[in-house]
Structures are given as C-alpha cells and as structure tokens.
Amino acid sequence: MVEGLHAVVRLLLARMKSHPREFRQREGFARARWEEHINDINTYGNETDKAAILAGIRDIRLAEIHEQVMEELLNGPERRRKEEEGKEHERQSMQDVQQLSTPRSRRNQLVDTTWPSPTMLTTNAYSKAAILTGIKK
Predict the structure, then answer these.
(1) Total count of domains within the chain
(2) Is residue 57 part of a domain?
(3) What is the model's pTM?
(4) Based on the domain organization, do 70 and 86 belong to the same domain?
(5) Are 75 and 57 in a shared domain?
(6) pLDDT in tens, the chain (137 residues)
(7) What is the DSSP letter of 20?
C-alpha cells in the first residue's frame, strides 16, 4: 500500500511556505509552537511524511544559515568590535560601581596604603632634619 502525505503534514508544509520565520531555529517562541507537532510526525508519521517535513525544515534552515553567513561576511568584524566595546564599557561600569560601593573607611585605608601617612611624613622629616643637623634621638 502506497501512502501519500497525511493532511497534517500538508498543513504544516503550507504553513512553512507562508510563514517560514515560524520554523526558523532562532525564532524561539514561534518555533516552539510547531516543534512538538513536528517531533510527533517524526515519531508517528510514515517515511513519506518524515521526508516531506525534513525537506521543508531543510529549506528553511539552509536559508537561515545563508542569511547568517552573509551577515557575518558583511558586518561581522564591526559587530564584534561594538560587542567588545560594550563589554569593556560594562567592565568599567562594574569597577566604578564597586569603587562607589566600597565603604568610605575602606577607601581611606586603600588611599593610606598608597600614600605616605602624615605620621610617616613627620617621622621622615624629623629623621632627615636629625641627619642634617646631627641631632640624635
């Protein structure tokens, strides 16, 4: 017995032709709308049904890949540069937020460790004066 396409397969193929974006891999929700039905056809359909669905999906997927390749060839380097600039800006913003969120006393400690303290300056000045004048402690 030769079996033709099931009516649901014909409906899905017509939908693929009229609304191919709904079957694209990157379309998320729209693709999920049909995914369960396509999986069921792959499970329960005959070989003709499966081959027809696969051919329909193949055409849509190859068109999507073609579009992605062309986009990469035309805009890839510029897009990656902008993405990197965005990441760098985000890193800088995070550092700024971390610095602002550091308690003031901790910021002062950090400054104190990088700059000579007033005590150190006084001690150093006294030591230099003592050396120059010959005064001993």
Answers:
(1) 2
(2) yes
(3) 0.54
(4) yes
(5) yes
(6) 446 899 999 999 999 999 998 998 876 677 788 999 999 999 999 999 999 999 999 999 999 999 999 999 999 889 888 888 888 888 888 887 777 776 666 656 655 555 555 555 556 666 666 666 666 65
(7) G
Angle at which helix 29-44 crosses helix 7-18, to 10 degrees, equals 150
Residues 89 and 114 in one domain: no
d(CA 97, CA 104): 13
Residue 114 sits in which domain range?
103-137
86 plus 131 within the same structural domain: no
CB hemisphere CA count around 90 (13 angstroms): 6
Q: Residue 112 half-sphere exposure, CB side, CA atoms within 13 Å?
A: 10
Tokens of 28: 């998320």
**Which residue in 28, 30, 20 sits closest to 57, CA to CA?**
20
Q: Note whether residue 82 is domain-resident.
A: yes
Distance (Å, whole) CA 24 – CA 16: 10
Identify whether 27 is part of a domain.
yes
Cβ-count burial of 13 within 10 angstroms (0-12 exposed, 13-18 middle, 19+ buried)?
middle
Phi, psi of 4 (to 5 degrees): -95, -170
